[in-house]
């Protein structure tokens, strides 16, 4: 007996869209313009290109537009997307370690890339005879910690937490059992503070707030023992985040103490970071004037060139990050005309490999567009938040998406909104 394969007669979505477009004599740019007119807000030519190459697959709202544009049943487009997704999984399963030509899971790729060489130095091997720790050990471990830190750019806290905790425990053992000079001791304590901050951040990202608080308190004590005021300030700023999240009411107090802990010799990048975090605490408390002032301090500091070395734990702070926080603050204050330009400009340079952060920042952009009354555009952005958040070991994008779904619910009668809410219901996400 012959069994019919469910894919018989089904064309993957990319070739199908390309064939339909070319049958009408249209370019990708032309199709994008027609779809933009149909839905009432811009669709870039790049979106059509990504659909046709399977870099991205059209979501239900996009499939509804394409169905109306080409006169093709939505069910046919849905089956084409399912088939394309299956083909992508098959390609990924066949990918080997050289993966130069294949479609790979980019997050896993960057996790492996960032981790290359981490195992080369085993901290336990650094205790020489007599348990003496050489002056070069903190530097060696700092390089290892820097590699571990960069994993956070591409994966969530649920993926990194245990790794960070093991590193922290090993360094703490070295400091407890080893024999070393006073200078080496300060270096080890500073390293413990950095590693405790990493462990705290991963726990926070995974939703374990009390665990995060414990790590941050460890970081605060270690940074003070290391006499590193910048690290101390960063520890206090992390504690401010926890307080803000759990509603402890001390967020502004901790963030203010973090900024005031800095000295005149602090690197401008660190000053920008802690001013940024103070601005966030004020914005989420509704203090627009104070938030605006702190954002101005951060903006001035990030463009100031100083002779002070920038600590590796602040490597990610740049003008785009300051712009992102500016947009987030004004979104929280429901000032969309100030939030949208800052967010859109910086996000234009964000690669999708930084999926968690991009999903989070897009969520504030969607919120700002909702405040501006642009419901359908906010819906399209929320769909991107869903796409980027799939498979992330972080609860934060889901939390933000849940808030957006709640805000979109009153607009369910609009077709794109209804399609997105149905997608959330069927997938159980955000649950």
Radius of gyration: 25 Å
Order of helices and strands: HHHHHHHHHHHHHHHHHHHH
Largest sheet: none
- Give the structural class: mainly alpha
- Please mark out the parts with pLDDT under 50 across 5 or more consecutive residues, or reply none: 1-7, 95-111, 113-117
Q: Which strand-content bin applies to the residues? A: under 5%
Number of helices: 20
Helix content: 55-70%
Separation, N- and C-terminal Cα atoms: 43 Å
Question: What's the SSE blueprint?
Answer:
Layout lengths: L12 H11 L4 H12 L5 H9 L6 H11 L3 H20 L12 H10 L21 H13 L7 H21 L4 H24 L3 H17 L3 H18 L4 H10 L7 H17 L3 H15 L16 H14 L3 H12 L7 H17 L3 H15 L6 H13 L6 H13 L4
Helix pairs in contact: 2-3, 4-20, 7-9, 8-9, 9-10, 9-11, 10-11, 11-12, 11-13, 12-13, 13-14, 13-15, 14-15, 15-16, 15-17, 16-17, 17-18, 17-19, 18-19
Short description:
The chain has 431 residues and is an all-alpha fold.
Describe the structure.
This protein is about 70% helix and about 0% strand. By secondary structure, the chain is mainly α. Among the domains are: about 15-95, 434 Repressor (Amino-terminal Domain) (Orthogonal Bundle); about 120-225. Helix 15 (about 320-330) runs antiparallel to helix 16. The longest helix is centred in the middle third of the chain and has 24 residues, at about 180-205. The relative contact order is 0.07. Mean pLDDT is about 85; it is low at about 1-5, about 95-110 and about 115.
